[in-house]
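Per your request, structure below.
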């Protein structure tokens, strides 16, 4: 995924888990977009979103969820309140996903400027 994102001209940072991502966010300027996998070790995507919301990060950074997980109605509702978009892994070609994420990130960056 990182190769796809950098291939469309965006900078990308990776985190091995939700806690590592929170640590990165605390030490760096907010990114234009967070691409989130729900199934991570240490801290899953749901807890990551809760912590981001509590720390006010979600006010400034849109989140796109990319997951292979089957979501329950309550999980979908939770994500709908906290994220911009939920994508299913394998539902679209990786190349088109990179282009879509690039367009979203650029739009958000321009809106913030």
């Amino acid at each position: 995924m990182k190769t796809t994102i950098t291939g469309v001209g965006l900078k990308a940072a990776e985190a091995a888990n939700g806690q590592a991502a929170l640590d990165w966010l605390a030490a760096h300027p907010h990114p234009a977009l967070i691409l989130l996998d729900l199934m991570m070790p240490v801290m899953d995507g749901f807890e990551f979103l809760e912590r981001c919301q509590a720390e006010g990060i979600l006010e400034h950074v849109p989140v796109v969820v990319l997951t292979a997980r089957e979501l329950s109605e309550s999980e979908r509702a939770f994500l709908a309140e906290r994220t911009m978009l939920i994508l299913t892994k394998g539902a679209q070609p990786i190349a088109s996903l990179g282009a879509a994420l690039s367009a979203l990130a650029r739009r958000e960056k321009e809106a913030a400027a």
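The radius of gyration is 13 Å.

Regards,
D.
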